[in-house]
Amino acid sequence: FAADYISLGIREPVYEVVEVKANGSVSTEKISRRQLLKSSGLRLRDTRSVDPSLWLMNSMPSLLVREQAILLNLGSLRAIAMHERVLIFNYNSPGGKVFLELLRPRLNPRNINGGPAMPFQLEVVEAALLSRIQRLERRLMHVEPRVAALLEVLPNRLTGDVLEQLRLSKQSLVELGSRAGDLKQMLIDLLEDPHEIRRICIMGRNCTLDKVSDDMECAVPLEKQVAEEEEEEIEMLLENYLQRCESCHGQAERLLDSAREMEDSIAVNLSSRRLEVSRVELLLQVGTFCVAVGALIAEEYSA
């Protein structure tokens, strides 16, 4: 594989990533694409969704499940989760920082409260979804009071500053609604594909999926039981985040509709004012014409 890069005269990409292991240890390392593919069992095309150099090409959120890894592309968070570790690209991005803040406490045994620990890859997936949802909710909490305040003063207070704030708020809502909508669709697609959920459940276990029935087959019956229970947990987890995402998306759309209605009201208000100005101008023109005619008549009689 490396020889192919050399023969083509292409420099093999090297990624700087943060590695978080299941025991909670964190380290920064540099890993070549060849090493990444070998250690994760991925193919070259799989890494496109998390490759930082292809940022603009992979803006849509995605959660791709492969045999030995889960590829996460959620906003500025790009990561590859495996059975015992996760590699985080762009770890200094807002999404990467929030993800690390949420993941590390979850790996601390003291925070389990005596309950059974979730598999590491599920902890990673939940922390990733939670970090993305929380960022969207915070944006909504930031823009919502601003829009509400603008709707109170408009359309009575039509100043350039207020109209500019309305434009910026509307732009923020469009972006927020788009991102929440994309994440919602990703969750819906995942929930409608039980095969992908089962692939997550058997990761790291001596289990396979029947090619015909798609049922889980495990060497140890207990592992099958645990995997089936995890399948239900994953579905409940995804449903929970789907509801939160739907709430965020719906509220953003409602605020955007209100802002658009206010823009329409402002347009009608301005149109009414323009008509009033035109009416006054017409009256002035008529008055001027009458004065001119009167002056002309007076001049004729005086002559």
CATH class of the domain at 1-94: Mainly Beta
Which consecutive residue ranges, at least 5 long each, have pLDDT under 50? 1-7
The backbone outline, from C-alpha atoms, is elongated
- Helical residue percent? 55-70%
In CATH, the topology of the domain at 1-94 is named Lipocalin
Structural class: alpha+beta
What share of residues are in beta strands?
5-15%
Strand order of the largest sheet: 2-1-6-5-4-3
On the 0 to 100 scale, the average pLDDT is 86
Distance between the termini: 108 Å
Q: What's the gyration radius in Å?
A: 30 Å
Written account of the structure:
This protein is of the alpha+beta class and 303 residues long. It has a domain at 1-94: Lipocalin (Beta Barrel), CATH 2.40.128.330. It is 61% helix and 13% strand. The chain is built from 7 helices and 8 strands; from the N terminus they run H-E-E-H-E-E-E-E-H-H-H-H-E-E-H. The strands form 2 sheets. It has a 6-stranded antiparallel beta sheet with strand order 2-1-6-5-4-3. A two-stranded antiparallel ribbon has the order 7-8. Strand 4 and strand 5 form a beta hairpin. The radius of gyration is 30 Å and the shape is elongated. The relative contact order is 0.08. Mean pLDDT is 86; it is low at 1-7.
